[in-house]
Amino acid sequence: MVLWPYYAFMHEWVVMFGDSPTALRTPASIGMALASSMIVLVGRRLFGAPAGLAAGLLFAAVPAISRYGQEVRPYGIVMLATVSAILLLLRAVERPSVWRFLAYGLAVAWIGCSHVIALLSLASHVVIALSAYRRNKLWTLIGWPVALVMGLAIASPVIIGGQRQGGTIGWIPDATWARVETFPGDLFDSPAVAGFFLVAGIGALVALAFGRRAWTAVFLATWALFPPIFGYYTFHEFYFFLPRYSLFTVPAWALLAGFAVRQIIGASSGAATAGAIGRGIANAGSFARVLTATVLAGAMLTFLAWESHVAVRDPAGGGEFAFRDGAAYIEAREKPGDGVIFTGYPNTHRGFRYYWRDRPLSEQPREVLVDQAKVIPYSWDRPACADPVPCLGDTERIWLVSTDPSGIATSPLNAVDQKAVEARYTVTEHVEFTRLWVSLLVRKPAK
User: How far is Cα 406 from Cα 429, in angstroms, rounded to an integer?
Assistant: First the structure.
C-alpha cells in the first residue's frame, strides 16, 4: 500500500514505545514541531530572522496543524520532510557541494516515501533551481537534477504502488465549485484563519513582485498554489483534490504571512544605523516589534478559531467517530456472553478493538454475525455469516454499534440480517455519541 513506509515505521515505534494514544501520536507531534523550526530557518534565509520567527509562530497557530500534529497519520512527518527538502535545496544552491545535494536527494526520497502527493511540492524546487541558474551557478544544473532523480528513484516503489491503488482514494467527493469555495477554510480548519493567511499571503506576493523579489514570489506562489490547482484540474485522473492532501502548502502561506508582518511593522534585516552597537540595538528593537506583533496576531487567530481549536482536541473532533466513548459505554455495562454487531462504517470494529486491546479477545463481546470459522488470524477481514439465525444462536444480549446517520439501530444491516435480528430482539437502550449510536438488543421472550 502507498503508506507502507509510514506503517512500517509505526510498527517499530509501537514495539519500542507501546500503543497508547500518547505513544501513537508522538511521531506526528515531533514532526510538526520540527517542521515549525524548519520554517523559521527557511524564513530566515528568505527574509531575515524576524520574518522567519514570525512564520514559525503563525504556522503553529493554524488549527489544522494542531489537528494533524496529534493524529496517528503521516501528515506531521510529511510536513517535516517537505520543509526540510526546501531548506536543504536552498543551502545546496547557495553553496553547492556533493554532500549538500546528496542530503537534498534523500529529503526528496523522504517526501515520496511519506506521502506521494506531497511530491507536488517539487514544482517549487524547479523555481529555486532556475533562480540559482540565473545567478550563474551552473553547478546547480548538474547537482540538482542528479539529486532529484536519485530521490525519486529511491521512492519509486512507493510512487508506482500509488498509481496502482487509485481505488483507495476514489471515495473523495467530486471537485465541484462548492468544494473550491470551502477549500481554504478546510485546509486551515478555520475560514477566519484561512482569510487571514490569504490576505496576508496575497499582499506579501504583491510586495515581493514589485520589490525586486519576483523569483521569491514565484517560488512561494508555486509552493502554495500549484498543488491544489493541479489537484482540481486533474481530479478525475488522480483524485488529489482534498484539503488535507495539500496540507504541505501551509508553510508557504506561513512564510508569506511572516514576511507581511515584518513589512507592516517596518522591520528591516539591514537597519541603517551608525556603529555596530547602534545597529545591534536597532536590530534588537526590530526583532522585538515583530515578535510582539506576531504574538498578537497568533492570539487573534486563536480567538477567531477558538471553536476549531476546541473541536480538534475532542476525541471525536475533525469528523471522526466517538469510538472511545462508545467502547467505554459498552465495557461499563456488558455482561459475560454478550454479543456485538458493528454496522455502517466498515472499520468500526477496529476502533472498538483498539480501546478493548488490554482485554483478551475471549473476554470481549463476540461479533455474532461474523463467521468465526472463516476468520483469518491477524486479519481485520470479517466474513459475514451466510445464515444469521445459527450465528445469533441463543445469545441473550447484543450490543449493536451503528454509524448510520439515520440513528435507526438496525437500518444499516442487510435485509436478511435485519429481519433475523428484529424478529428475535428488542431495543432496550439507544445512546447517541458523535457520529455513533450504541443500542442494546435483548432477546424477546419465547412465545
Answer: 16
If we measure between CA atoms, which residue out of 153, 85, 150, 161 comes closest to residue 116? 161
HSE (side-chain half, CA atoms, 13 Å) at 121: 32
Extract long-range pairs of 287-292: CB within 8 Å, 24+ residues apart. 287/49, 287/50, 287/53, 289/265, 290/50, 290/51, 290/53, 290/54, 290/261, 290/262, 290/265, 291/50, 291/53, 291/54
Q: What is the structure's pLDDT at 165?
A: 61
The tens digit of pLDDT for each residue in 220-242 reads: 999 999 999 999 999 988 888 99
Run of H or E residues at 439: strand 436-443
Please give the grid coordinates belonging to residue 116: 506521494
Model confidence at 278: pLDDT above 50: no
Q: What is the DSSP string of 36-83?
A: HHHHHHHHHHHH-HHHHHHHHHHHHT-HHHHHHTSSSSTHHHHHHHHH
Is residue 424 within 8 A of residue 443, CB to CB? The reply is: yes
Q: Fill in the DSSP letter of residue 446.
A: P
436-443 and 397-402 strand pairing: antiparallel
Pair type for strands 397-402 and 366-367: unpaired
pTM, two decimal places: 0.88
What gap in Å lies between CA 223 and CA 220, rounded to an integer?
5
| CA-wise closest residue to 388 among 365, 368, 367, 412 | 368
Write the single-letter amino acid at 184.
P
| Residue 175, SS3 per DSSP | coil
Q: Which amino acid is at 417?
A: D
pLDDT of residue 269: 45
